[in-house]
Amino acid sequence: MLTPVTPRSWYLIGRSKDFKVGKIKKITIYQTDFVITRKTTGTLVAWANRCPHMGADLSRGHVHQDQLVCPFHAWRFNDKGECTHIPADPESLGCSRKLKTYPIIEKFGLVFINNSRKPNFDLPFFDDLREKMLIAGRPFQIQQDAAWYVVSANAFDVAHFVHVHNRIPLRDPEVEDLGDYGKRIKHFYKIKPSNVIADKIIGFFFGKEGTLEYTVFGSNYILAKSTFGRFSNHMVIVLQPSGENKSISTIALVKDISDANLFQIAFRKLVLKFQTFFTKKFFKAEADEILGVRVNKNSLHKSDGILKEYLEYVEKVLGLQGAPGL
Question: What is the model's pTM?
Answer without folding.
Answer: 0.91
